[in-house]
Amino acid sequence: MALPSSLNRYLLLMAQEHLEFRLPEIKSLLSLFGGQFTSSQETYGKSPFWILSIPSEDIARNLMKRTVCAKSIFELWGHGKSPEELYSSLKNYPVEKMVPFLHSDSTYKIKIHTFNKTLTQEEKVKRIDALEFLPFEGKVNLKKPQHIFSVLEDYGLDPNHIPENPHNIYFGRWIADGQRDLIESYSVKKRHFIGNTSMDAGLSFIMANHGKVKENDIVFDPFVGTGGLLVASAHFGAYVYGTDIDYNTVHGLGKASRKNQKWRGPDENIRANLRQYGLEKYYLDVLVSDASKPSWRKGTFFDAIITDPPYGIRESTRRTGSQKEIPKGLEKCPESHVPVSLSYHLSDMFFDLLNFAAETLVLGGRLVYWLPVYTPEYTEEMVPWHPCLKLISNCEQKLSSHTSRHLITMEKVEEFENRDQYSHLLSDHFLPYQGHNSFREKYFSGVTKRIAKEEKSIQE
Ligand SMILES: C[S@@+](CC[C@H](N)C(=O)[O-])C[C@H]1O[C@@H](n2cnc3c(N)ncnc32)[C@H](O)[C@@H]1O
């Protein structure tokens, strides 16, 4: 695909983690900052090197202030499959675009970056010397250069077959690094208030990015737990709000999830988590509430709904219930045994979630959530849908040999008319995910373990 000539070419160096989540993250962020995703590559597959076109350096910088999937971005000056190809590509790069960064008053440094191979210092120096033909007029400054240039060599993805020569070589001017540091600084290991299902920091930021969360947005998590997803959204300047059916979680009471600690301490709650990161001003509130019975008046309140509903594995899927709703066969239970919460089928939960999102999101707002699936039975048609919501991306994260969860991102594209109008979507025909109501049973049945064992013995 030919690129429009008005666009500058950039090289993104991607992290080799959560591969499936990378493209939707970059696409979502570019659309947030007014840049369309244009690429010269048909598919980015697993490579850490992505060439793409962006209208301006400002947009490239904004992208890097948000991404946790990309490590760095470079303005691409040249690219080739051999050193000769790279040098001739560099000779074709317009000198007037180079000069502002190479003039005699400037300082610079050249770095060599290799993927899947380590070079000796001598080899690195050789590569730097070979670039002598570029019109560098400034002084080298290794400690604090004004401009950093990088040669990036790609030796493929297979550590068992490292080629003698790189598949691709790039040369570019470094512009900015991404936000990979957030994964460490927001790690749940160091977080004040955590639970068994607290969302990993890296994935929380990816979810907020898929959700196009931006400053002054209002973000809601209906299954808020310990608020891991609120923390990530607040970091990007959104006001956050959540609900959970569990009184103890919302109030930070009950048993602690940390080893060597029996009960939660006096200030272990979501507000304190936000305070820990200097984000308390973004805390709206958290309430005890059942997602199956939303207590909201009509209106579009949220810019994004970002959530991790329960799958029934480490926490139960529940909804509030009354005596009238007690399943047949249990009527004879003595009154003291009447359950105050009933099981909440996964398909009903996702139907409710999509309907709620369609009703309460602003137009263009996004719903981002995890859908657990039993992989042997999974087909794309199973992903719940709604006429007001468009599927933006569907990324798989494997949990075991036969189970995974999919990160689903949807965007509200139609105004919601009336709740009753969508009730037909509850029928089998419209709810193909229904078969997965037994996800929990399948997960615990031992079937997955047995199959994994069988597969292992076949491989041996
Ligand atoms: C997977 S956890 C969410 C974890 C959260 N993202 C975090 O970082 O801690 C799911 C949460 O949903 C809650 N939950 C279960 N059924 C619910 C319901 N019907 N309405 C609201 N919350 C519910 C559980 O109490 C649990 O805290």
Automatic annotation (TrEMBL):
Q: Could you list the residue ranges forming a coiled coil in this record?
A: none
Which biological process, per GO, is one annotated for this protein?
Answer: tRNA processing
This enzyme catalyses: guanosine(10) in tRNA + S-adenosyl-L-methionine = N(2)-methylguanosine(10) in tRNA + S-adenosyl-L-homocysteine + H(+)
Q: What PROSITE patterns does the annotation carry? A: N6_MTASE, SAM_MT_TRM11
Listed Gene3D superfamilies: Vaccinia Virus protein VP39
Its assembly, as annotated, is:
Part of the heterodimeric TRMT11-TRM112 methyltransferase complex; this complex forms an active tRNA methyltransferase, where TRMT112 acts as an activator of the catalytic subunit TRMT11.
Protein name, UniProt field: tRNA (guanine(10)-N(2))-methyltransferase TRMT11
What gene name does this entry carry?
TRMT11
